[in-house]
Amino acid sequence: MTLSSSPGLAPTLLLAALTLGAAACRPAEARARAEEAASPDGAPAVTVRLAPIDRAGVTRVVRGTGVLRFKSEVDLSFKVGGVVAQVLVDEGARVQKGQLLARLDPTEVSAALRQAEEAVVKAERDLARVERLHQAGAIPVSQRDDAGTAVRLARAARDAAAFNAQRSAVFAPEAGRIDRRAVEPGEIVSPGRPVFHMSGRSRGAVVRIALTDRDVLRLREGDPARVHLDAHPDGDGALAATVAQIATSATPATGTFDVEVRLASVGDGLLSGLTAKVEIDHAEPSLVAVPTAALVDGRGDAASVFVLDDGKAKRVPVHVAFLSGTSAAVRGPLEGHQDVVSAGAATLEDGAPVRVQR
Fold it and tell me: Which of the listed CATH numbers 2.40.50.100, 3.40.50.970, 3.40.50.2000, 2.40.160.40 matches domain 74-194?
């Protein structure tokens, strides 16, 4: 049984209202029959109705609001600076892995690569000459070692120049969509400046919500969840999801804990930045569900219910975890009992004889 708490109403006010409402709505003829009926020992019997205790399992619904994002959103930039030669995609474009998005004018990086390659040729030529002189005994071994080091340094510089030349173009790291474009042809860009923001699809979509400490302690990774998008064309259609990550420390500014919920699938209509409402189901095996009409003497989260014991009413104290509609999730010593008194509970005293109305 799935129940959800009502955070906007205090349990004390709800339970008090239920108690007063049950007493005020009791039918006049039921009161008359209860006064006329009597138990074998002469005490008047109160006519009541019973309701079953739901032990099928109570599920608490934890709610939060966040923004839908794709897990692999990245900023794309050039490794080196230079003049932008081409920009091949616009905002909103769908791209495939490895697709060329933009490139710099290759003049500068190509010249740097050729310079590095020529430096390698010179260093290798110098090393060969030093080796011959060293074999002839004309120079010490230290000069031969220095020439070898110069070759290795030149080769390393050539590799760095080749790497920069390769990174003078921006390619899509995976399939996805271009969310923002921040560059135009002819612009001079600096190294590392973001020129595109891209949402990749390979790692799915997530919604990050902030929860209080009481709520976050009830959750476990893998708990089922539902995501509702306010702007989704299906209206109230829920998207299946699961709890993927739970923060291990609170956010300093708010004192809340971030919980990341991952959608089971990513449809074509999903866009990064959509407002989402999240519902997370958490099983509460220690709770049972009873009708709210069965609750009496509500004070905060403490209340009582009546059960039958040899034809008499027995008061049982319970702890109210939360309310949902006409049901209440409670914890208390109700083992061995199948029913609670619903109609007529407000007029009972502990030990009063009762007559069950079928």
Answer: 2.40.50.100
Tokens standing for residue 41 = 């020992």
User: 5 pLDDT exceeds 90?
Assistant: no
Full-model pTM: 0.60
Question: Domain map of the chain by residue range?
Answer: 2-57+286-356, 74-194
CATH number, domain 2-57+286-356, options 2.40.420.20, 2.40.160.50, 1.20.120.1200, 1.20.120.50: 2.40.420.20
Amino acid (1-letter code) at residue 327: S
Euclidean distance between CA atoms 328 and 289, whole angstroms: 5
Cα–Cα distance, 321 to 327 (Å, whole number): 11
Q: What is the pLDDT of residues 107-122, one digit of tens each?
A: 999 999 999 999 999 9
Distance from C-alpha of 250 to C-alpha of 178, rounded to nearest angstrom? 33
Count of CB atoms situated within 10 Å of the CB of 135: 10
- Determine the pLDDT at residue 8: 42
Per-residue pLDDT of 28-59, as tens digits, reads 444 444 444 444 555 678 888 898 988 877 88
Distance, CA of 63 to CA of 214 (rounded, Å): 12
At a CB cut-off of 8 Å and minimum separation 6, what does 29 contact? none
CB contact set of 273 (below 8 Å; sequence gap of 6+) = 67, 68, 69
